[in-house]
């Protein structure tokens, strides 16, 4: 019964992974989710920016770079890139921003949008309707810009109300900004003053009174995470983190596609050879291990689609390597099984004892591999991280595959210990 359930799960996972080959489900929304392919597999643009952090205190560098990364990511999303890869990289004392736009061929437009300094501005309520002849079609329907922009904001911070404990945002302007803010709040008591970052509305609080002194609060029904996110975005619009493009590269898909084809071809040939070896050497257990291996493959690919994981050529290599690790676990189990059979145990008892004895070796070897993959992911660059991620996911699933799937299949055949069954298990 459990074996049948595993086959059903594997069948559904197979449909999810390869829907294009099944005509009646290929248009079902759930099955339309594609694999996320990296820059090297579908081509695109690779940009490297150098951030000028000379004016930023050492303790604020990390937050400023994360805020910058957040702003660039939102800009790229507006540009229409569904799966951008944007990350901060430290090279010695310098900070760099790596931007990979898979599928984007117009490199000049991408550079133009990304290279602009983050822009924070304050807007007041519009008093008259938009005049279509005097204003552009992109003009804000509800608010008009003021002179107060992010360059006058010294700092935004998270704070909590002393009575209610509700989180809110505090703003601190420089001297010139304080004067502008006081003037704006005085003229707009009882009305909204909107805060925009890169043309996107962040908040539109109502002014309760004239605010002097250069400090203000943004209150509302915010969660702590929402307030922290808002503070980071506000600071990213105010802090001077100019970036300079130091490297640009247009990546063609042909090179990555060729690597992908080679990797997949190597994986298929490797899988066939391993399957022949397992079946020839271990007979029925080998055949069941191959079936478990196929289930393992569709389960891992399903996880890659669901998370989703960006597949690069290195990531595909990590996945193929994890298949070999999954085979190793089965070999350890079968060798322990043969040793137990040599001691005169029944097939069923030998299988159970074989799994118990093999488990510690499987656990220790896989945990050490997981530690290695974690270190590679933590300290590696984007390609190395892709390799480490697919390898790590593959190792975790391989442990489930060896201990649960293979064991379930073997139990289904071990109850009848006739001569034929003993021969199929390789027992003389």
TrEMBL record:
Residue stretches spanning the membrane: 260-279, 286-307, 313-334, 367-384, 390-410
GO BP field: intracellular protein transmembrane transport; protein targeting; protein transport by the Sec complex
Key words, A-Z: Cell membrane, Membrane, Protein transport, Translocation, Transmembrane, Transmembrane helix, Transport
GO MF, any single term: protein-transporting ATPase activity
Subcellular location: Cell membrane
Domain SecDF P1 head subdomain: 147-241
InterPro entries (alphabetical): SecD, SecD/SecF_arch_bac, SecD/SecF_CS, SecD_1st, SecD_SecF_C, SecD_SecF_C_bact, SecDF_P1_head
Residue ranges occupied by any Protein export membrane protein SecD/SecF C-terminal domain in the UniProt entry: 244-411
Keyword field contains Signal: no
GO CC terms, sorted: plasma membrane
UniProt superkingdom: Bacteria
Matching Gene3D superfamilies: 3.30.1360.200, 3.30.70.3400
SUPFAM superfamilies: Multidrug efflux transporter AcrB transmembrane domain
Pfam families: Sec_GG (PF07549), SecD_1st (PF21760), SecD_SecF_C (PF02355), SecDF_P1_head (PF22599)
Family annotation (HAMAP family): SecD_B
Subunit-level organization: Forms a complex with SecF. Part of the essential Sec protein translocation apparatus which comprises SecA, SecYEG and auxiliary proteins SecDF. Other proteins may also be involved.
Sequence similarity: Belongs to the SecD/SecF family. SecD subfamily.
PANTHER family reported for this sequence: PROTEIN TRANSLOCASE SUBUNIT SECD, PROTEIN-EXPORT MEMBRANE PROTEIN SEC
Protein name: Protein translocase subunit SecD
Organism placement in taxonomy: Bacteria, Candidatus Ryaniibacteriota
């Amino acid at each position: 019964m459990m074996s049948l359930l595993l086959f059903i799960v594997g069948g559904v996972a197979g449909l999810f992974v390869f829907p294009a080959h099944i005509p009646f489900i290929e248009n079902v929304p759930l099955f339309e989710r594609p694999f996320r392919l990296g820059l090297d597999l579908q081509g695109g643009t690779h940009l490297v920016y150098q951030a000028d952090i000379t004016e930023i205190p050492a303790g604020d560098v990390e937050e400023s770079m994360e805020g910058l990364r957040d702003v660039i990511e939102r800009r790229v999303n507006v540009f229409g890139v569904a799966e951008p890869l944007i990350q901060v990289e430290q090279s010695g004392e310098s900070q760099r921003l790596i931007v990979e736009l898979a599928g984007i061929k117009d490199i000049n437009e991408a550079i133009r949008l990304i290279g602009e300094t983050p822009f924070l501005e304050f807007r007041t309520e519009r008093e008259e309707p938009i005049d279509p002849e005097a204003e552009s079609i992109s003009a804000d329907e509800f608010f008009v810009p003021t002179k107060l922009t992010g360059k006058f904001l010294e700092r935004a911070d998270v704070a909590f109300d002393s009575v209610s404990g509700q989180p809110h945002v505090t703003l601190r302007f420089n001297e010139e900004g304080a004067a502008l803010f006081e003037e704006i709040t005085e003229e707009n008591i009882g009305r909204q003053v909107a805060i925009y970052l890169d043309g996107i509305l962040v908040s539109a609080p109502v002014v309760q009174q004239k605010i002097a002194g250069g400090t203000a609060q943004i209150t509302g029904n915010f969660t702590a995470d929402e307030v922290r996110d808002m503070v980071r975005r506000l600071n990213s619009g105010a802090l001077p983190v100019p970036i300079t493009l130091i490297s640009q590269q247009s990546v063609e898909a042909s090179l990555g596609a060729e690597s992908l084809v080679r990797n997949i071809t190597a994986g298929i040939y490797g899988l066939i050879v391993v399957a022949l070896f397992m079946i020839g050497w271990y007979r029925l257990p080998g055949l069941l291990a191959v079936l478990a291996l196929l289930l393992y493959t569709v389960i891992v690919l399903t996880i890659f689609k669901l998370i989703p994981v960006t597949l690069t050529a290195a990531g595909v290599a990590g996945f193929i390597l994890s298949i070999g690790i999954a085979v190793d676990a089965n070999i350890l189990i079968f060798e322990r099984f043969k040793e137990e059979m040599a001691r005169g145990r029944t097939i069923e008892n030998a299988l159970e004892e074989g799994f118990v004895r093999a488990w510690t070796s499987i656990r220790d070897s896989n945990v050490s591999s997981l530690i290695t993959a974690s270190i590679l992911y933590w300290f590696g660059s984007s390609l190395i991280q892709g390799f480490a991620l697919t390898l790590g996911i593959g190792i975790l699933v391989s442990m489930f595959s060896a201990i649960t799937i293979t064991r379930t299949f073997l139990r289904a055949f071990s109850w009848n210990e006739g001569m034929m069954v003993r021969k199929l298990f390789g027992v003389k």
